[in-house]
Amino acid sequence: MTPSSPSPRVLIADDQRDVREALRLLLKGEGWQTESASSPAEVLDVVTSRTMDAVLMDLNYTRDTTSGQEGLDLLAEIRAADRNLPVVVMTAWASVDVAVEAMRRGARDFVEKPWDNTRLLSILRTQVELGRALRRGERLEAENRALRDDASRDGGGGRDRQLIAQSRAMEPVLELIERVGPSDANVLITGDNGTGKTLIARRLHDVSERRHKPLVTVNTGGLSDTLFESELFGHVRGAFTDAKSDRVGRFELADGGTLFLDEIANVTPAQQAKLLRVLETGEFERVGESRTRRVDVRVLSATNADLATEVAEGRFRQDLVFRLKTVEIHLPPLSERPEDVPALAAEFLERHAHHYRKRRLKGFTDGALSAMLAYDWPGNVRELDHAVERGVLMARGERVEAADLGLEAGTAADRAARLEEMPLEEVERLLIRRALDRFDGNVTQAADFLGLSRSALYRRLEKFELDPAGARDA
Q1: Are 89 and 37 contained in the same domain?
Q2: How far apart are the C-alpha atoms of 24 and 1, rounded to whole Å?
């Protein structure tokens, strides 16, 4: 999470006290808040009485059984209480069949015991961000349902407005979603960081015939070749040193549903070849296994890179582009859709005011609205969200004022001139935050861009209390 985002709140549900304590200490070390539960009843009590960002839960609560049925039943009750609350399940036995079933019933991901701290934290960060994004759209979904009902009564002439898209620049995006969403066509979503590519992917899935099956997300940026194969295709026990049990890959988990490959331009040539094969044939083998498996998966992918340039310079396969891009949906930057700024800002203000219990806030002053409309938003919708959150925190009266937003108003030259007046540490902090935003929180890429080693960047992240995981598509 970025410094302006509230610390995630995670519910740890396990009947073993030592497991709960180990996970609590791990998350506490990341600055996260936790609640603990040792039984399904306690889990439901927390979920229904407090606001959580994610649930990390074991599938078994009775020592003499390993069926996982308790966990599956509990998952259904959690989903009924809050359908947008991300649930990550834990499994301690060699077979992961029950974990796969949990994914099919609505769990977002699973980890095996003993868990890898780095992977567990990465999964939780991703799911917390996705859960928060979904909650931001909850109110809009209700409004859109009414809009769709009105459109049906009017003979179908209405337009879906779920994405807060009132600008002319977003009309082609909405039209493409309406036309290709219900199909099985593979879609490439392009656009700058922070424009909302992840939400477009979810919308495409939600309007498709596959909406009752899983939407499985993989951030392909920075995965090694071995990890890439294991994540996408799975592995069998003993396939490599740390393969202590069978693992189901993301293609298999998404069977019948949708697989979203984020940061697709970052996959290596070797990874591209393996990905091309499964896209062409629907067939793959788990790492360390000779058995060929077959899946039926729709693939959505996203990138902020120009794949035509990547192909021309020999970094990306043209035939893979053809497979990924039956249709391309390009998201314009927020600077090209200023008509959407007031509506987006109003939605963000309502959410953050509710979260921080600042119910007296009634909106923005005219000066604040003018400042937001005059700003060029290099960080797009994500930056607007962060600015409004800061405004909610800083506001003293009933309305957010321009100064509360912390915008660097003026031209690029004006902002560059102001950098010269800032203390060196503030400039360094600003540049690191922008690099993390640019590369969606990928520390390796941000470090390369800044000319630092990974360890040097991590030291600065600790010094400035920055969290690389905060950069995600809004």
Answers
A1: yes
A2: 18
